[in-house]
Amino acid sequence: MGASSFFSVGVLFITLLSSLWLLPEIVIAKHAGITRHYQFDIQMQKVTRLCHTKSIVTVNGRFPGPKIFAREGDRLVIKVVNHVQNNISLHWHGIRQLRSGWADGPAYITQCPIQTGQTYVYNFTIVGQRGTLWWHAHISWLRSTLYGPIIILPQQNSSYPFAKPEREVPIIFGEWFNVDTEAIINQALQTGGGPNVSDAYTINGLPGPLYNCSAKDTFKLKVKPRKTYLLRLINAALNDELFFSIANHTLTIVDADAVYVKPFTTDTLLIAPGQTTNVLLKTKSHYPNATFLMLARPYVTGQGTFDNSTTAGILEYELPSKSSSSATNLLKKLPLFKPQLPALNDTSFATNFSKKLRSLATAQFPANVPQTVDRRFFFTVGLGTNPCPKNHTCQGPNNSSMFAASINNISFAMPTTALLQTHFFRQSINAILTTTFPTKPIIPFNYTGTAPNNTNVSNGTKLVVLPFNTSVELIMQDTSILGAESHPLHLHGFNFFVVGQGFGNYNPNTDPASFNLIDPVERNTVGVPVGGWVAIRFLADNPGVWFMHCHLEIHTSWGLKMAWVVLDGKLPNQKLPPPPSDLPKC
Length: 586
What we know:
Elements: H1 3-17, H2 23-27, E1 35-49, E2 52-59, E3 68-71, E4 75-82, E5 90-93, E6 119-125, E7 131-137, E8 147-153, E9 167-176, H3 181-191, E10 200-203, E11 220-223, E12 228-235, E13 241-246, E14 251-256, E15 259-266, E16 268-271, E17 276-282, E18 291-299, E19 311-317, H4 324-333, E20 336-337, H5 347-355, E21 375-387, E22 401-407, E23 410-412, H6 419-427, E24 458-460, E25 463-466, E26 470-478, E27 487-491, E28 496-503, E29 522-523, E30 525-528, E31 532-540, E32 544-550, H7 553-558, E33 561-566
């Protein structure tokens, strides 16, 4: 019986089983919070940036989209109504989705997309997480405008492991395209060439004064002297890692991907697409008689074209005892200081910054690093090619092929029915979704040396199956095929510990000796170093089908993605509940 047959059988069970959808609430009663309801209406909205007006896909007509507030232990019920012509799915990036994989959101992985005129309710509980995460569209390139922050406060009567800030400010970086991003990616996939790059980077949707026609579209952060502010930074850019700095101010890093870290100070930070970072900004002890630029621009490691521009916001100190008109006039006359950012290709800074990130590893916030490993995997990640179709003009490498991307040389082919549905209903009749995804490269080569002559990838929908509670060690190795490049890899459904990283080819005989199994940083998105490798460990304690992909959107589109299937455990609270009755159908 094929996957479509299993799905057909499964549909018959959905209505009967949907009443069991509330099972996760029984299991997580000890984390009980309140239920918070949101309605997201997906609708078109005209927006002007860079003196260019276009209609974009938004939530509730807002760009960026609305903030979601919650406390650890709260249940979120988010009703999404699709009023646009595009198919839609939303992902709650970094939320563990413990036994609620039906709400994770990636199209054709955990759900079929929400079609025009349809509604789907995402229903999940936040368990054991607090900090900054974010939500975004997870289909095609629609996340260029469909994104917003998720602010998770500690439980009532709990506090931060640092002094309470004066104010908390979400700062979300994005990219603005003057043309429709769907047209950009469609053209790139048709021609096999690289996509057109963005026209600007943005801070909270605003390009800032360094771009033409954008002085009025500038994010301004107003602060007072002798105060501490918590900045919740999110990189929602499609294709670029970003450096960020505020002139004449230092930042204290306290959180990465909604996990507390050992605090350290820095003038500049690096944040990859998909990542979040909480920082404390301590203002000056007196009014400084100046204003200060905050800048973000790309960290570039690949050989393709990129948006070589800089977005800017302004840090302003509130003037004491001044009328609004006189304050405005005075601010215009104040000197404006500009920070010095690292060079575009400063891999040394990127490496040193990432090595400073370490878990708190305290009794209250432990680092539960798997000390033993049940399954080991070695994945190469990088670019490659597909042959140019007959009688087709291609704009990929040498103008004779099409760009592709792969893991272990397999470029992931998206299914036409959601994998989680196929998996669930196969399990319901005592069958298991099988896999042929290789645990290591089928043909080893000098991964960071001279690239092989044959750069073609294979294509397929291949998965890895893990028994419940398997401890996993995964080495992700960059390759030099079509040029080495940093790849921010995001794993759905789990946090993982970054136990090691290095440059060149990973050596399984010597490199594990340097692994940090005491206080490694815990993340959901990690950069594979350009021309290097990263080692992560995680516990497969969440049944379902979980996407893993590069968060550079063009690499995802080219196939740098795969999925893990985590089987049910033996106990009732180790099993995936049935799907909700309103789960979209393909």
